[in-house]
Amino acid sequence: MGAAMDTEWFKRFGDIPGVTYKTPHGIDRRRLLAAKARPRELYLGGKRVAMQDEPDDSTSPAAQRWFDLNIADMSVDAMLRNLYETLEVPGEAEDYHFAIQDVIEVLWRRRRSEPLVLAHVESLSWLDVRLIQACPDAIMFGDELQYFSVPAFGRLITLYTREGAWRDALVVADIGEQFGVYPGRAAIVERVAALDAEAADA
After folding, report:
1. Nearest in space to 140 (alpha carbons), one of 179, 98, 184, 175
2. Alpha carbon separation from 174 to 91, 118, 124, 131, 133 (Å, rounded)
3. How far from chain centre, in Å, is Cα 5?
4. Which pTM value belongs to this model?
5. Partner residues linked to 4 by β-bridges
């Protein structure tokens, strides 16, 4: 059967082909009831869709679990634990993307009161970027090649440019440009060129 199920659900985030992910220490998938959920198949209009036990429910366990959470008032540790547990239950790539993105944005809003969260913002943003590279459909809408805006690219670029790590920022911008989700690449290229010129004149 491979890593993915016969439907559009993956058994867990780490089973998505092209995504390198190691379950964090302390997260025990065997204790998560939703991890045992398996979809049954239903054909609607000739298209196979994933269903849970309820006949009218096509929402994956990951999406259901995340929808039921209110992370805004959680501690950082509780928020991250809930995210990592969500990544261990069956879901679609876009379910994992939106869960990761939600946490990135809540942490970003806390960066001034809790500066240490920026390390998590960076690691989770890269996790989201790698997911998008492996599954571009997770952020695509419509029949044409159009993509949703993805905050992870902007967060990484802001972190790196503030640190003066312009080449790291350019790596992120190069990836983002492939999906049309970060239009500021030209300014970063100019900055890197200026730095190279300064180095050459030194």
Report:
1. 179
2. 28, 22, 18, 16, 12
3. 20
4. 0.85
5. 10
